[in-house]
Amino acid sequence: MEPVRVLIVDDEHELVSALEERLALRGFVTRGVTDGAAALECLRTTTFDVVLADVKMPGIGGLDLARTINAERPDVPVVLLTGASSPQDAASGSTLGAFDYLVKPVKIDDLARVLCAAARREQP
């Protein structure tokens, strides 16, 4: 099976780097960016199997990013990640077509399982 290609979007550079490193060790191909605009540009030029996006970011946040990706690239599932769990955000993410909604800190093995399921379009 081909490695899962993940676009990681979070405004915390250290978190992006840590996730890239830990997912790469598990066989994922990753690219990390620190804002929604950069994520949209990456999606226009590079193929990804899944996007992992933080909900709360300056500018284009994860919910807006999910909405745009769902409209422009419905073939790319979005997994939302947040440090502040909110039932409203979870419901909004679901309405916007997000594949899943995870709360930080997330165990890396759980994250890997969800990302693989999203890439295969299967429930985790």
Describe the structure.
The chain is an alpha/beta fold and 124 residues long. It has a single domain, classed as Response regulator (Rossmann fold, 3-Layer(aba) Sandwich). It contains 5 helices and 5 strands. It has a 5-stranded parallel beta sheet with strand order 2-1-3-4-5, with helices on both faces. The longest helix has 13 residues.
Attribute tags:
Rossmann fold, alpha/beta, globular, 124 residues, 5 helices
Layout of helices and strands:
Elements: E1 5-9, H1 13-25, E2 29-33, H2 36-45, E3 50-54, H3 62-72, E4 78-82, H4 87-95, E5 100-103, H5 108-120
Parallel strand pairs: 1-2, 1-3, 3-4, 4-5
Please state how the strands of the largest beta sheet are arranged side by side. 2-1-3-4-5
- Over all CA atoms, what is the radius of gyration? 13 Å
Low-confidence stretches: none
- Strand segment tally: 5
Helix content: 40-55%
CATH architecture: 3-Layer(aba) Sandwich
Structural class of the secondary elements? alpha/beta
The CATH class assignment is Alpha Beta
Average pLDDT reading:
90
Distance between the termini: 18 Å
